[in-house]
Fold:
Amino acid sequence: MKQPPEISISRVAVYLRFLEDYLKENGPQSTINSSQLAKFLNINHHQIRKDLSYFGKFGEPGVGYRADELKERISKILGLRKKWNLCLCGLGNLGSALFAYKGFKVMNLNIVAIFDSNPRKIGRTINQVKVYDPANMQGVIDKMGVNMAIIAVPTEAAQDTVDKLVRSDVRAILNFAPIKLSIPAGVKLRNVDLATELINLTYFLSSSA
Amino acid sequence: MKQPPEISISRVAVYLRFLEDYLKENGPQSTINSSQLAKFLNINHHQIRKDLSYFGKFGEPGVGYRADELKERISKILGLRKKWNLCLCGLGNLGSALFAYKGFKVMNLNIVAIFDSNPRKIGRTINQVKVYDPANMQGVIDKMGVNMAIIAVPTEAAQDTVDKLVRSDVRAILNFAPIKLSIPAGVKLRNVDLATELINLTYFLSSSA
DNA sequence: TGATGTGAATTTTTTCACAGCA
DNA sequence: TGCTGTGAAAAAATTCACATCA
Structure:
């Protein structure tokens, strides 16, 4: 059982999301096998079993998986049984949207602090969450027990923000700025770039036209 | 020169984004070589050259790349020299945010129509863009010349939305719903799932604690 | 029998090493 | 000399095939 590749972790997260819906429709006693799951998710069944095998044994030969058990165990493995405290850096267009997005809370991911350098925003409270001056980042992060961060600041402020976060001991960061940030070892950074995703599509349309 | 892998297309899009900034700072005559670019972007220089090699020859041995020429040629290859008309499906939290997000327009990506099934939203106009009833999708898409779509509807409505889009001849779709959608061959679909990205981080923190 | 879990084979992606050009 | 572009090597991910177990 080797260290799971990052991409398997992502897929297992997708399996988990699916299982939640599946359980609601089919009841807590339901079972599912890798071929059914593969069909629903539009991928191949070898991959599902291989992905799961990095994390342990979950099924019964000849039967499949107990859906509720699989869900619970994956959920635990992915670290979703405990609550996480996030800070959101940048309360512009994107930051505001991410704050409003309901998909996080469901997963025990709670934004507990917001940082924005705009003096007009600092001090405001939105849905019980306060907007702080980035200059006070370290103190706020300590006080609130923040363990993850979302970067939604303008590109030119992103590296500075990540440096501040790292100095405040945040070790897991999701970055929306279209730039590859430098981080020290031991810190995990994931990037989401919306425009880049769309460019894959424009290339597809242009090259297949 | 083989078909470029999807991941190379994504990276080349990142190179393009960087070159735009680089040109602003260093002037239109500036050059850059793969090692410099690699350093800035925090990746390795072999990869940059390999990625570019899928698309053609761009540099001068012993010198590097003319930044403006590289930018222009990449931009053309990625299909960003023409204007694209997008429709946004779903004007909830996330949809509203995506609509407000300024990173798209810069890349010639324009949202020209919005679909939302909420009767209170249908008929409204936001920033010159009208909100339409999804029932009229095909007609609107034809009329507005929509060639790409963004799906930001609730998960349970996503497959239905994609089916409608496909029937309306949209062949490139960016999906934010946490579900693997079924599409026919010839249609390109990319998925962005924000919660899944964060789950990679919770796994990292849990397993390294 | 029917499905899992996993080594092995295959394919893809990344990294390397170097020929060739300015 | 210095850097590009690319075939080859290495590494990683995906797919396959099958032993194994209920």
